[in-house]
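Open question from group meeting: does this chain pack into something compact, or does most of it stay loose? Before anyone orders reagents, we agreed to write out a predicted structure and look at it together. Recording both the input and the output here so the notebook holds the full record.
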Amino acid sequence: MSTLIAALHMATAAIAAPSDTAIASDVAIITAQPAADLAAVDEGDQASAPAASPPATTFRPIAFGPYPAGWQIDVGPGVLAVPRFPGSDGLRILPIPQLDIRYKNQFFASVQSGIGYNVLNTRKWRAGPILRPEFGRTQRDIAVFPGLNRITFAPEIGGFLTYQPSLFTSVQLEVRRAAGGHNGLLADLTLRRIKLIGKWTLGYGGRVRFANATYLRAYHGVTPAQSVTSGLAVYRPDASVNDVAVSAFASRRIGGNWSINAFGNYARLVGDAADSPISRSPFGSRNQVTLGTSISYRFRFN
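Structure tokens returned:
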């Protein structure tokens, strides 16, 4: 995986999260799916949050903080450990820049969380379009399995619907289809919680991901031709739940607009993804871990 795909994992499993204007994949996410985006929310921020308009939230993990009055940019260095490929038992350590851009409680854009806009934006509900990068799978990623297919970069296009029953709790459904690459369909259902303790922002979340047969056959399937060269058994998965994940993060303000962040995401492959000969091989695993840390600086302006 490239540095960019690492960023995507943070999004799904860690540093940032999708479709909401606040930062934080997966949980991603990190993503599990969502660190740098998990910017801490201090007491001054809490005081500035309008009672009738709570902050937007994001995924894997997500930082729940008051939305900015104008533009807000978080930027800084970070390091990330991600699986070498879906179903891998190895990790790749990568330096990854943190960059997140938000405008009010409307627009958000970052490598980790994609690009989105809150078309529906009420006290408890948000919804809108989302575009995420999917960086695929390189031949280098799967060098231990000669003959498996390379999956090219492609945007995943879809939409999200978020319900926020209370200030620091949210439930989000996000559905995306890749325009190229794996050409598959993904649906993520995510629950997130956050807690503020002084200068600390602590959070945790859980996610269930559904994938259609096209996605699973691209990443976890083995064709007869690929079986001959890779030595893996022929495998043709069907649509099913792809994985179940949990994530957590901690962020602390360390002076001025600086924050230090850490996060982790654990995903367990289930269903047809777990039964793949790729994940069951000596080089594979049903357990997928993403870890990361970053330092970020926040700019705000109208």
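Observations to bring back to the group:
The chain has one domain: 3-301.
The domain at 3-301 is CATH 2.40.230 (Outer membrane phospholipase (ompla); Chain C).
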